[in-house]
Request: fold
Amino acid sequence: VFVFLHVLITDSVAAKPFITIHNIIDLTGAYAPIAIPSEKGGKDYLSWIADQGGLDVDGDGKPDVEVKYAWAEFGNVDARFVSAYKRFRMGKPRPTIIEMWSSPNQEMMKPVLERDKIVCYGIGFSDRQLYPPAWNYMDCWSYGESAAGAIEYYVDRLWPERGKGVKARVAHLTWDSAYGRAANEPTKRHGEKTGKYEVVAERFCTMMPTDPEVMGFLSDFDKRDVDVIWSNSIVQTPAVIMKGIHKLELDKKMVLMANLWAPADQLLEIVGPSAAEGYMCPQPVFIPSAEPEVPGVKFAKMLNDKYRKEAGLPNIQYMRGIRMKAN
Reply:
């Protein structure tokens, strides 16, 4: 009788419904500065879910579904990314949704995902992988939409020459990759459509640019009377650009803007207040340092205080990681 009851109890526990979140993430390559704090937020959120006993999916206040997590680190190496994807695809349970990190890989994987009937929820937001909508999804704007919207907002509301009947002059200083180039064509198209600005230069830098490399580009932009620089990169690149802008005393002549993966709080930590002054970066989440009383920020702080206990968190990327797992 004891053995029979033990088997029933064991089978009952084993049969509890569960979902598995799969993630192919870069924690050691070019995306590490944004991936590491984001992953911390995501894992802390999953720890909190586990402490609740799982997800309450029917609204009765009781946990119904266990959440499991399977991840692979690919170090921004394409071959390792493909290997991790094949391992997940052939494993058990077969993924329904996989988190992915990087526009180049998500663009490459779009036809593969369609073939395998697996959905990607990623941090790569290039327009080419998102439109037409299918198999690649995200939780905010595309890089093109972000850049075009931010530039138009600046030109309409903040640009010193606004209202004088002249077009703003925009330059791209970014990486030579699918991710780096993701905003170039959409901003050209939007500038031509609205007539509010024109893209006058596209320049490509290394993923970890040096001061002399960036200084050369900035000197060229100065000669071209550039008003706005957009960089579709990671925070280390805008940090070097901002230092160069202030060193060449161009901060009264041009403004640097970058996408959400180059958040102002991280840039401030790298270059300090004087060099960070004037930097602009649109964000789809609340900013913990500026909005500490917002419920979502308080929740993120609770997670950090309970599970991570790091003084520098929550930051914007930590917030992003929580949101990704929650979605």
